[in-house]
């Protein structure tokens, strides 16, 4: 933390005092957005019971939040250029806080889903441009540590979300899961107005058609992934796939021919950026498969209770909390691809160890493997994000930030769909539960291996560039 506030002659970014305040704003935004998923997720059975709806219907309280966010992130990243990231971030915070009040007061599931959809827009506005603001706030020499701080904040939210949700439900009703956003959000808005760097928006014409095509294409893709393992909705998969492909093809055509595109495709000509994007996709796919598979392994195969399963899973986010700041510091001193590759190697080893656990492992065996996964993922993530954000000019940082957020969301969505496909028995109806869950973990490890190969290949690319 002390290094992040240091100042050297010639530093870009904000002065140290304003830097710490702006950093607190961005951390608050990430904390609220991620906590809101994990704390509400654990309350779904309670909400379903009190609103008198089915468990399947209540899942849309989570799904619509993620769906709207995934479909709108690229749009918000481009909108940040048009109206200024200062206005967009604060506007997203205000919308998030207002819809928290609306969610707490929702009289029915239908209204709750509507308000959660709007809340997803507020979350996407913050998350899509948050990483790009770190480039404005911090000097380039500290960008890796700043990215590590982002990963640390998200890990805290992931680790604390279920505990916070359980604690609130033990003393109050479910609407308080939304009420608690209000004081934190109001304080963050007040601080954001004072501390975030102000920017003037551009006067160019916003690509409305590109935004619509992007939202339809990405939204249809996410819904299609959710429908793959649901036999009752399997007939919609070809239609959704066709809509997604057609919309995204139209989006690409639009970006090539519009004067001020929503997503400048030229950024993918930068090899370092493109390879960091692909590495990020496969790593988040692997993490998502593990996150979803492990509760089934712990409870259905090894016989642990839900509370015990939560305890066994805790070393993962704790490992990220250690690895992310460390990876960020190392990435500012050494080659980020090398640090990322080391982290992915540890992550892959941890996934392989979890897949080999068997039916009756000791608690220590589970804990150290879970911690190794988290340590490796944290060590990888901050350097890779630094490479993604730092490989492009600052003028393109908003686009890079939107791509970063979108790739994370879609990697997680694809991972969830693959696990659902395996667990539903579509791939092999003869498998027992132990083999099925192990297969999902091995698939996650294979995805981590692809990420490792992509990350390691960047070392050769970087050497060739330096030689030239």
TrEMBL record:
InterPro entries: EmrB-like, MFS, MFS_dom, MFS_trans_sf
Stored PROSITE patterns: MFS (PS50850)
Keyword terms of this UniProt record: Cell membrane, Membrane, Transmembrane, Transmembrane helix, Transport
Protein's cellular compartments: Cell membrane
Domain Major facilitator superfamily (MFS) profile: 22-458
Entry's Gene Ontology molecular function annotations: transmembrane transporter activity
Membrane disposition: Multi-pass membrane protein
UniProt entry tagged with the keyword Transcription: no
Domain of life: Bacteria
Chain ranges passing through the membrane: 20-37, 57-81, 88-107, 146-170, 176-196, 208-229, 235-253, 273-298, 310-331, 338-358, 364-382, 403-427, 439-461
Annotated Gene Ontology cellular component terms: plasma membrane
Homology family: Belongs to the major facilitator superfamily. EmrB family.
Name by which UniProt lists this protein: Riboflavin transporter RibZ
Gene of this entry: ribZ
């Amino acid at each position: 933390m002390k290094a992040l506030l240091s100042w050297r002659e010639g530093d870009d970014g904000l002065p140290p005092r304003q830097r710490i305040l702006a950093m607190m704003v961005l951390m608050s935004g990430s904390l609220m957005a991620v906590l809101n998923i994990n704390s509400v997720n654990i309350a779904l059975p309670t909400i379903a019971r009190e609103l008198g709806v089915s468990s399947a219907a209540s899942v849309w309280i989570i799904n619509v939040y993620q769906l709207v966010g995934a479909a709108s992130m690229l749009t918000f990243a481009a909108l940040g250029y048009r109206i200024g990231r200062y206005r967009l971030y604060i506007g997203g915070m205000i919308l998030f806080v207002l819809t928290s009040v609306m969610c707490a007061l929702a009289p029915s599931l239908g209204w709750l889903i509507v308000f959660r959809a709007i809340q997803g827009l507020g979350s996407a506005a913050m998350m899509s441009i948050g990483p790009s603001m770190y480039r404005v706030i911090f000097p380039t020499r500290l960008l890796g540590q700043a990215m590590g701080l982002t990963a640390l904040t998200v890990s805290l939210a992931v680790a604390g979300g279920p505990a916070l949700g359980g604690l609130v439900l033990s003393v109050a009703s479910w609407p308080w899961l939304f009420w608690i956003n209000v004081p934190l959000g109001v304080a963050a808005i007040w601080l954001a107005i004072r501390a975030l760097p102000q920017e003037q928006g551009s006067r160019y014409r916003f690509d409305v058609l590109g935004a619509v095509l992007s939202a339809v294409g990405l939204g249809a893709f996410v819904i299609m992934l959710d429908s793959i393992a649901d036999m009752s909705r399997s007939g919609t998969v070809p239609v959704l796939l066709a809509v997604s492909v057609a919309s995204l093809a139209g989006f690409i055509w639009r970006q090539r021919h519009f004067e001020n595109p929503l997503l400048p495709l030229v950024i993918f000509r930068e090899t370092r950026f493109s390879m960091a994007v692909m590495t990020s996709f496969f790593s988040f796919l692997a993490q998502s498969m593990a996150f979803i598979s492990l509760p089934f392994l712990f409870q259905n195969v090894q016989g642990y209770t839900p509370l015990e399963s939560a305890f066994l899973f805790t070393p993962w986010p704790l490992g990220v909390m250690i690895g992310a700041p460390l990876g960020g510091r190392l990435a500012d001193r050494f080659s980020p691809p090398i640090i990322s590759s080391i982290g992915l190697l540890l992550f892959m080893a941890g996934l392989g160890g979890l897949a080999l656990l068997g039916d009756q492992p000791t608690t220590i065996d589970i804990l150290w493997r879970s911690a190794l996964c988290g340590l490796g993922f944290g060590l990888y993530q901050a350097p890779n994000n630094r490479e993604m954000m730092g490989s492009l000019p600052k003028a393109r940082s908003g686009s890079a930030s939107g791509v970063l957020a979108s790739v994370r969301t879609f990697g997680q969505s694809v991972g969830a769909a693959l696990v659902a496909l395996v667990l539903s028995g579509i791939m092999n109806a003869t498998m027992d539960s132990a083999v099925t869950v192990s297969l999902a973990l091995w698939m996650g490890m294979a995805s981590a291996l692809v990420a490792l190969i992509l990350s390691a290949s960047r070392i050769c690319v970087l050497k060739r560039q330096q030689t030239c």
